[in-house]
Amino acid sequence: MRKREIIAVGGGKGGVGKSLLSVNLALALSQLGKSVVIVDGDLGSANCHTLLGITRIEKSIEEYLKEELSLDQVAVPTRFPHLSLVCGAANKMDVYLERPNAGEHLLRDVVGLDYDYIVLDLGAGMSDVTLDLYNLSHLKIIAVTPQFTSLQNAYSFIKSAFFRSLMQHESLNEYLPQMSDPVVFRKIMLALAPHLEARKDYEAALQDQKFKIAGNMISAKTEVAIIKKMSVIVKEFLDIDSEQFGIFSQSHDVQSSINKLTPFLELFPNDENSRELKRIARTIDGQPAEVPVRGWWKFWQAASN
Ligand SMILES: Nc1ncnc2c1ncn2[C@@H]1O[C@H](COP(=O)(O)OP(=O)(O)OP(=O)(O)O)[C@@H](O)[C@H]1O
Ligand SMILES: [Mg+2]
Fold first, then answer.
1. Using a 6 Å cutoff on CB, does residue 217 contact ligand 1?
2. Residue with the nearest Cα to atom 18 of ligand 1?
């Protein structure tokens, strides 16, 4: 029996590095000798396969959604030991996901994948199935860049995922109309007696929503402070806790790795971004932590809350 830890990489739409981080984190975990599968959750313009050097998709989540093959059967080996990939869809698959129970089947089958780590690249949207995949994951990573629009998108994603998780609880149904204002909603929840079902479900949902922030494309210490502000705002308005996952530099090497169809972790294993990811992979896997790679950490610690 494998560990079956599900790691989701989500965040805002539009090129913040979700796919790059998913692929390279998965590779770093597989290099520790663990069995890893990446599920490319982009149902429309998938590209994890390209980042791994796979130029021709033989089978993908499309065959799974069309009910031709099981999810396990569409996982293909990559040229990297211990690392498999469920390719995303190159065609729009909404029509298949709209069928009754299709979303539930996908969630159930993702949970059933027999690997040590299941890394979900959540793709760009905020569809119900994307939010549900995020909500069921054990480790939630939110990728952001220091652009305000990216932070705004990430905040919307976190808020939508939280509300979707609240909606799963019958005890909270009567409070749905108040959920659109998170501050008012929180006050209502905190006014409930601690032993009430609704209050307990709310507290449990808050715990489940804890996430880690991956700051990407950083090129100045002031940008680290901007990313940190994000966790402060989420705490202030939604009361959700977060921690730093990692800070990744804006890097020419990362960009050049894409057109070389090779993960940057393989091309530039000693680059600071690669070393940061390898350190994180060891921590996720419970192996002795190494010292943080370089200066961004001190700017994170120094930035005010
Ligand atoms: N650390 C980095 N340094 C330099 N460029 C980067 C870095 N991270 C991402 N990029 C650039 O951003 C682009 C988008 O990255 P990626 O495809 O991983 O984003 P995404 O969040 O998955 O996008 P989408 O929302 O479309 O799925 C890359 O093609 C690359 O050009
Ligand atoms: Mg992507």
1. yes
2. 17
